[in-house]
Design goal:
The complex is a heterodimer of chains A (345) and B (297).
Chain A lengths: L2 H25 L2 H26 L7 H16 L2 H7 L7 H5 L4 H23 L4 H21 L1 H4 L14 H19 L2 H11 L1 H6 L4 H27 L9 H14 L4 H17 L7 E3 L2 E3 L5 H16 L12 H12 L1
Antiparallel strand pairs in A: 1-2
Chain B lengths: L2 H32 L6 H17 L5 H24 L7 H23 L4 E2 L10 E3 L2 E3 L1 H23 L1 H11 L1 H6 L4 H26 L2 E2 L5 H14 L4 H21 L7 H15 L14
Antiparallel strand pairs in B: 1-4, 2-3
Helix pairs in contact in B: 1-5, 1-8, 1-9, 1-10, 2-3, 2-4, 2-8, 2-9, 3-8, 5-6, 5-8, 6-8, 9-10, 9-11, 10-11
């Protein structure tokens, strides 16, 4: 298929998504719209982790930390000074924090940039470490971010967190950012830099021997990943309208990791499909936590059951289909065209 | 700070440190053999504490019996986890087993939330552990002596097993080179199962004593001590039992002493371990007792 057709098809697809969102916004109820929003945010997060882990092979468990940074920076910027002055009841906020105010777009970008800055600063020393060690060290980073978030009440309002964050993150913002992330990740993965990412993932020593500046490239990928994790966190904050340090526990990183692994490490379409699938399944699983009535027999809801099923699914995926839904493959227009042709023949 | 308070802090550090050390041994043994961070270990620790609680409340077992039953059944669970979730992945990339471990950890944690419920539970403590003893100005709970003494006894037993029995020889062989061990006729899977059993038993013992020290049970109680103990294992040099003990004690002392000398830092207590970890990884990634291994091309 030639390039123009592909671009055209992509535009058609984006147009369809636009129409769907327009329809969804006017005719679906708030709960369903919320699920759609979560799908978009989860796809952003999954893509960012996939860039770091799936494409560059750096086992990072620090996603919750970057998300927390993005979420806090964004929330501080979009809340009005008056709102913040009533919110900080433990201790008054620093004047800089209290007076900072910016439109949503700027706030989200700022959240991403600050997260990226942290990615750069902690990546520089940590990325020298090998896989498991890197995982543990980045996990340590995320925990430190959370503990610090608890202990600087003049910036983060301590353990109380923020409430009433303006809910700017509607369908259009979320899916806009989602598409932007998707576009960026596709472009970078298919570029020359992307090939270097994959070379490092497949064999770091060989990549080094080929004269690649492994450290620089790793840092680049890590920083980009951190940026989009920050953006995802920022959108999530505005979507949920309330954040506190407890939200950014390891569980959060775990659920993103789960999406990436289920989708397939190193597969963009896999991350997208799993992002949609897992978000929907997780919401759907809420029914096991609600009371169920069959005839005149009632079963009480079991809190925690949802995560039991969720983690069981992860274990089963890793045991029986290690490569996830897509493995490292992608769904492309070419692939679809070939598939259709084969169907005809 | 008076001498009396210092001694108290010292004993507290020793208690906490030996608990970390006991958990860290489990991490380090499994990592030494399989190069796997057994995330589920912190849940094993939690189950150990809960089983004693249920043994006493549901089955009315005497405290000491409940302890033994708990240690044995938790060792069984450790072996089961290995059999179900790790053994099928022996030949897979290491990261798969790691993700499986994270999955098992969340699974056990949430199963505990479902079956044990998330409400904190009070733990029974035998009277004789709670009668404070006075030595001059120093007030000491027998508990603060009981925990390190029992821990060190268990560690001695472990060292005996690892260095003076045939199974221990197998463990050391596998940690050097798993493939050659197969060829030499070491029953690899059995030895690995035994490793999981011993590691889990130690974690259970630690969980039980943790519950005596901080008498409140919660399904998520394992997470933080588990992480910290893993850090202790890394700091001490992962794969080395002595290293795990040193790392655990070091961490216990750092946590208690820093807060004792700088009370303002109390809020950051949970971050100390992670900061120590990152510093250690940057200075000497192999840890205090670790041996450097080169990547083979």
């Amino acid at each position: 298929m030639n390039r123009n057709t592909i671009i055209l098809l992509n535009f058609v697809l984006v147009g369809c998504l636009g129409l769907f969102l327009w329809w969804a916004e006017s005719s679906l109820d708030g709960y369903k719209i919320q699920i759609l929003n979560l799908i978009a945010v989860n796809i952003i997060l999954a893509l960012s982790l996939n860039l770091i882990y799936g494409f560059t092979g750096m086992f990072s468990l620090g996603h919750a930390g970057f998300m927390a940074i993005g979420a806090y920076v964004c929330s501080i910027l979009i809340m009005t000074p008056e709102q913040k002055s009533t919110l900080f009841i433990l201790q008054a906020a620093f004047p800089l924090v209290e007076n900072a105010h910016a439109p949503f777009l700027v706030a989200v970008i700022a959240g991403g940039l600050v997260a990226a800055l942290f990615g750069l600063v902690i990546g520089a020393p940590l990325l020298r470490l090998g896989d498991d060690y890197l995982g543990i060290a980045t996990l340590g980073f995320a925990e430190i971010v959370r503990v610090i978030g608890n202990n600087i009440p003049r910036v983060t309002n301590g353990a109380l967190g923020f409430k009433g964050i303006p809910d700017h993150a509607n369908l259009w913002w979320n899916f806009g950012w989602c598409l932007l992330t998707l576009y960026f990740v596709i472009r970078i993965v298919n570029s020359n830099t992307g090939n270097v990412f994959k070379a490092i993932r497949d064999d770091e020593t060989a990549a080094k021997a080929m004269g690649i500046n492994v450290f620089k490239i790793k840092l680049l990928s890590f920083t980009f990943g951190a940026f989009f994790a920050g953006v995802g966190g920022a959108l999530l904050a505005s979507l949920l309208t309330t954040i506190d340090p407890k939200m950014f526990l390891f569980t959060l990183t775990f659920s993103v990791l789960m999406i990436v692994v289920t989708g397939g490490l190193g597969s963009i379409t896999g991350s997208v499909l799993a992002g949609i699938g897992i978000t929907v399944v997780l919401e759907w699983l809420r029914f096991v936590e609600n009371p169920i009535t069959i005839g005149d027999w009632t079963m009480n809801g079991i809190p925690g059951m949802r995560m039991v099923v969720f983690s069981l699914v992860l274990i089963l995926v890793i045991l029986f289909r290690r490569e996830g839904i897509m493995g490292m493959r992608e769904i492309t227009w070419d692939g679809i065209a070939r598939f259709m042709k084969r169907g005809k023949a | 700070m008076t001498l009396a308070t210092f001694i108290q802090h010292f004993l507290n550090s020793l208690t906490l440190g030996s608990l970390y050390a006991l958990i860290a041994i489990g991490y380090t043994m499994v990592y030494g053999i399989l190069r796997l961070i057994n995330f589920a270990h912190s849940e094993i620790f939690m189950l150990g504490a809960y089983f004693v609680f249920w043994g006493i409340t549901l089955f009315h077992l005497p405290w000491a019996v409940a302890m033994v039953v708990s240690v044995i059944s938790v060792a069984g669970i450790g072996i089961l986890v290995d059999r179900v979730a790790y053994r099928p992945l022996r030949d897979a990339p290491r990261i798969s087993a790691l993700i499986s471990a994270i999955g098992v950890s969340f699974f056990l944690q949430n199963v505990a939330i479902v079956f044990f419920q998330a409400i904190p539970r009070q733990v029974y403590r035998p009277q004789w552990l709670e009668q404070p003893m006075l030595w001059g100005d120093v007030r000491v709970l027998p508990l603060t002596l009981f925990v390190p003494v029992l821990s060190f006894f268990l560690m001695l037993v472990l060292v005996y097993i690892v260095y003076h029995t045939k199974a221990g020889l197998g463990m050391r062989a596998i940690s050097k080179d798993i493939e050659t061990s197969y060829l030499m006729g070491v029953p690899v899977n059995k030895v690995i199962a035994l490793t999981f059993g011993i590691g889990s038993a130690l974690a259970a013992a630690s969980g039980i004593m943790w519950a005596l020290r901080y008498p409140q049970l919660q399904p998520i109680m394992g997470a933080i001590p588990g992480f910290k103990a893993f850090i202790a294992a890394v700091v001490g040099g992962i794969g080395s039992i002595q290293g795990a003990v040193i790392g655990g004690l070091l961490l216990g002392f750092i946590e208690i002493m820093t807060v004792a000398f700088f009370p303002d830092l109390a809020g950051y207590r949970d971050a100390f371990a992670f900061i120590l970890l990152i510093c250690m990884l940057l200075i000497k990634p192999t840890g205090i007792m670790g041996v450097k291994t080169e990547d083979k091309v």
